[in-house]
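Progress report, Aim 2. The chain analyzed during this reporting quarter is listed below.
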Amino acid sequence: MPMELPVDLTPELVPLSWLLGSWEGYGMLGEGEAGDQHIFQRATFTDTGLPVVEYRAETWLADPDGTVIRPLSVENGFWQLHRPLTEADGGPGLIPADVVPALRNADAVEALRNEADGFDLQVSITHPRGVSELYLGHVKGPQISLSTDYVMRGEHSREYASATRIFGLVGGDLFWRWDVSTGEGLKAHASAALKRLPERKGRHHGGEAASPSAAEDSGSPQEPRTGEQD
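Predicted C-alpha cells for the chain:
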C-alpha cells in the first residue's frame, strides 16, 4: 500500500511515524503473572530533523494500585531504516549530510520495502551500568520486531547475552514486550501498554497514563501517583 507522507517529516521516517510522540502507561516485569513487579513507563519518540528517531524511555517501579515508588531505569537510543549509506548521508562524527536527504520522496522509501512488505530497521539502545545494544529487525505497518545483532558490556556490567523486543499499536495504545537472555535462553523480561499523550510543547511532559491493568484491559486512564520511598 502506498504511503502518505506527514507534512514536514523526513520521508525516511514515514514507516516509523506512528511511533512519534510521548507515551505513558503501566506494565509488569517477567511474565506479568500474579506477584510480579509492576512498573510505570514514559517513552518518547522524537523527530530530530534527521533520518533517525530519537528514543528515550524512563521506567519506575510501581505498586499494583499505580503508585510510583522509585526510579528503575532510563534508556536512550536511535531508530532508523537499515540501508546502505550513500554520498548524501552525513558522518562519521560531525561531517554534514547533503541538504537534500538521501531518500527524497515516498517512491525512494517504497523502493526499500523488503520481501515481507515491510522495512528493515536498525535500533541502538544504551542502558545505565555499561550495556549497549544494536538491534536489527523490521517494521510492517504498526508492528515492529527486533533482535539484538550485537551487545556491548562494560567490564563490571551484568551478564547480558541477547534480547528481542516487539512493539505494536493496538486500539491506539502502544504495547511492547522485551525478552532477555543472560546466557541460558530468552526469558520474559518485561511488558507494558502505553497510551499516547496529548501533544505539548517540550520534549518531556506529563499527562494521563494507562491504568495499571492496561496490559490486561483498556481501563480508564489515570494520573500516576507518587508514593514515599521505602
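The longest strand covers residues 67-81. The CA atoms of residues 162 and 185 lie 9 Å apart. These observations will guide the mutagenesis work planned for the next reporting period.
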